[in-house]
Amino acid sequence: MPVDNNFDRLEKEVIRLVEVLGKLRQQNAEFTAQIENLTAESNQLKSENTRLEQVEAEYQEISQTREEVKGRIEDLLAKLDSIEI
Description:
Order of helices and strands: H
Oligomer: single chain
Strand content: under 5%
Structural class: mainly alpha
Shape: rod-shaped
Distance between the termini: 125 Å
Largest sheet: none
Helix content: over 70%
């Protein structure tokens, strides 16, 4: 009888371990899918961030050009004001 009891305990433990292994494999598959999704999202955000930096640089350049044109126009207007007609 002791051998049967030990075998029953061993069999139950193996069954339990197989169930745990199945659950761990399922969790691993879920985590792998989450990692893939997060990686794709991260890559998309990096791409959007790069584009945003480009737009910001373009905006700064346009603002600087605008200020330069504004200054030149103000200079021209000042020169016109100084001319007596």
